[in-house]
Amino acid sequence: MRSRPRADTAGTGLVALLRAPGAAHGVSPRDWERLIAAGREAGLLGRVYWALQQAGALGAVPAAPAAHLHSAWLAAEAQRRAVVREVAYLAELLAGVVPRVVLLKGAAYALAGLPPAAGRQFSDIDLLVPREALATVEARLNRVGWLGTHHGAYDQRYYREWMHELPPLRHPQRGSTLDVHHTILPETARFRPDADALVSAARAVPGHSRLAVLAPEDMVIHSATHLFVDGEIPNGLRDLVDLDALLRHFGSTAAFWDALPGRARALQLGAPLWLALHYCRRMLGTPVPGACADALAADAPSTTGLAVLDACYGRLLLPQVPGEPGGGGRGVAAMTIFLRGHWLRMPLPLLARHAFRKGVVVPLFGDGASSRP
């Protein structure tokens, strides 16, 4: 990874526009082409439309890119309405099975009316339910048409014994995808947050007695954990934009910043939160009080470790437009973060067996081979 990412890529231009949408007046037609391509790659075109609208800068956008942005906004709004309808249906379906359904990530933002929902693309619906209710929840979902997407014996064992969620479920008629979690990290992960503590602190969604979302601090910590513990970041910039919006929204009160570091450390998640605050400040200019950052100093990586992570995330959090030069080192960065994510989520013996299974056994013998890890 010797070459540094170019300072004038479409990805950096997209970040600059998100940070200062009022500067759209100075964007050339050629640069708009590149920005639209980067925004589409990052899943952020709808968000860009919203940001320009809030800044009163839509009039500065030429007709062709404006049409792309408006179309993405309309699609995002349609997705948001579909998520709201689907969640209402799930709440009715699971009444009596769990006291309330705790929503995570995009569905939580949409139902709670939080800033990250504006213009956001939704890929699935994430729920958090008590582990003891998992089998009953799955049975009820299966009964009304939600079907598992991972049918191999090994994948079934992998999810049910080691992961933090059921195998993803899909509804064949509506096309919705559902991830049902019983905690927020795999059972085998180095960090072991207390899922009961998350559920007990969850806040009711106004107007929806059967729905809840994580408490503000927990919502930020979970978003940080999702981005900086996973080994794959297909929506990295979108997820970072979510974090920036959450921090700006909840951070309007000093009490939030006072509580955030202690809550993260109580959940054993100070390290991913430190990284989230670091990259939000570094890339999006998120205002983070010095006292909050100082309180997490013990969770910071070493100087060498941070240099490696900066080299990797500095590439991977930016979208790469097909055909654009300047992507040197991206493959090495992706492999580094992939290995780091798996190392954080699995003990080494299990990681070695899992890698052998997925890298050797499945390509040679298919997914129907013995489920023994």
From TrEMBL:
Name one molecular function that GO assigns to this entry. transferase activity
Any Pfam family matching the protein = NTP_transf_5
Alphabetized, the UniProt keywords read: Transferase
What InterPro entries would the database entry show? Answer: NTP_transf_5
Under which name does UniProt file this protein? Uncharacterized nucleotidyltransferase
